[in-house]
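Lab meeting, item 3. Inverse folding demo.
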């Protein structure tokens, strides 16, 4: 285990901390989820992160943002693949906080082969006392406490004009939005399903500054999607209007459809078979369909083979037949588009865009939730509902407390 660098001399790490604890898999949040005050504080160099990543550093946590994976782990539907090493466990994967201790670069690299020492040496642009944001690695867990072990490889310093709540909201969902927006070309007409959620609220903004000429959103609160900062040109409530039946969009189809809700590909395929018009151009005319979800947003998988059947095999088959068969003349080119890099580059870029005002962080107005039993439970209920308006954020501590970790 790597030796940590030392925190400031005036700082003393407490033996115990307050942390959210989940006692078992299930749905009864009142029974399973609580905030405990006697949880051992993680020690750098002594404790292993529950998500099992290497070279952790220690943060004093300020804010944590929830994501679909947090609800999935709690459900137990993927326990063999994403389950915690033991119960109780601390949930939460996306975090902003103050660096308390981090591995020394010399110690981190000392066991590597000499000829690879320079190229493998990690370089960070932050250190003890800096405010940083980090996303989860491997599994979303371990962050919703007063202190947490995080991976420095996927985090970066937070700009001064970006709040801790906003940074936690952006470090995962905002980065996904930026990656998806890189697929947009100047002048594209873009339709986004799930436009009001954590990724969608930021993606609507990102595709605009990437050059989209027209952005339409699909969500429960269509009026919100047309307001700042999301600013869709048009929006529909999918419970009242089928986006595939909007005449205006049939007459002038989209170049790109991005599905953040899940399950839209089978619906689009069936609609194209029956209807004379589609709201998206076929692949032969440059039409693209991007998604980050399986057909069923809530799925059960207890083996790698089950995951392959849900994600990989359908994606490969759809990618093939929309590119190389006659389907390319009726269906858009299919791409399963989620792949977060294993470095901090995209986090750095996303946080910089927020600092420049090009992406305005969107947090559900019911939050930030307090770091209490009721607050954390309410946050999980909202995340599990899949109807949040922006990101679900829990405020663990105030920003002005302990810039050096105290």
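The presenter then showed the designed sequence:
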């Amino acid at each position: 285990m790597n030796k940590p660098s030392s925190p400031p001399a005036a700082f003393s790490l407490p033996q115990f901390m307050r942390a959210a604890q989940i006692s078992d898999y299930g749905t009864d949040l009142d029974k399973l989820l609580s905030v405990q005050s006697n949880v051992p504080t993680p020690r750098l160099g002594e404790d292993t992160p529950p998500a099992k990543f290497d070279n952790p550093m220690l943060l004093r946590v300020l804010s944590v943002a929830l994501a679909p994976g947090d609800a999935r782990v709690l459900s137990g539907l993927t326990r063999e693949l994403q389950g915690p090493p033991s119960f109780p466990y601390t949930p939460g994967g996306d975090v902003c906080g103050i660096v308390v201790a981090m591995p020394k670069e010399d110690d981190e690299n000392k066991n590597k082969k000499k000829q690879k020492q320079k190229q493998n040496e990690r370089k960070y642009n932050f250190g003890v006392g800096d405010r940083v944001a980090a996303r989860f690695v491997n599994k979303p867990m371990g962050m919703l406490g007063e202190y947490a072990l995080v991976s420095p490889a996927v985090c970066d310093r937070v700009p001064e004009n970006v709040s801790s709540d906003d940074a936690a909201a952006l470090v995962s969902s905002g980065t996904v939005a930026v990656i998806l927006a890189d697929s947009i070309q100047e002048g594209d007409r873009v339709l986004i399903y799930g436009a009001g959620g954590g990724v969608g609220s930021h993606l609507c903004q990102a595709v605009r500054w990437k050059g989209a000429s027209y952005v339409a959103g699909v969500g429960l609160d269509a009026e919100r999607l047309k307001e700042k900062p999301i600013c869709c040109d048009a929006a529909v409530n999918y419970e009242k209007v089928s986006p595939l039946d909007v005449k205006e969009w049939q007459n002038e189809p989209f170049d790109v459809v991005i599905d953040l809700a899940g399950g839209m590909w089978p619906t689009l395929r069936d609609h194209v078979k029956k209807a004379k018009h589609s709201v998206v151009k076929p692949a032969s005319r440059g039409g693209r369909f991007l998604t980050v979800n399986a057909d069923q947003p809530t799925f059960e998988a207890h083996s790698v083979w089950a995951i392959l059947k849900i994600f990989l095999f359908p994606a490969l088959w759809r990618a093939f037949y929309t590119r190389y068969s006659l389907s390319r003349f009726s269906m858009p080119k299919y791409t399963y588009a989620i792949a977060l890099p294993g470095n901090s580059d995209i986090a750095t870029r996303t946080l910089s865009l927020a600092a420049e005002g090009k992406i305005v962080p969107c947090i559900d107005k019911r939050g930030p939730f307090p770091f209490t039993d009721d607050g954390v439970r309410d946050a999980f209920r909202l995340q599990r509902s899949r109807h949040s308006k922006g990101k679900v954020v829990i405020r663990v501590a105030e920003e002005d407390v302990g810039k050096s970790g105290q």
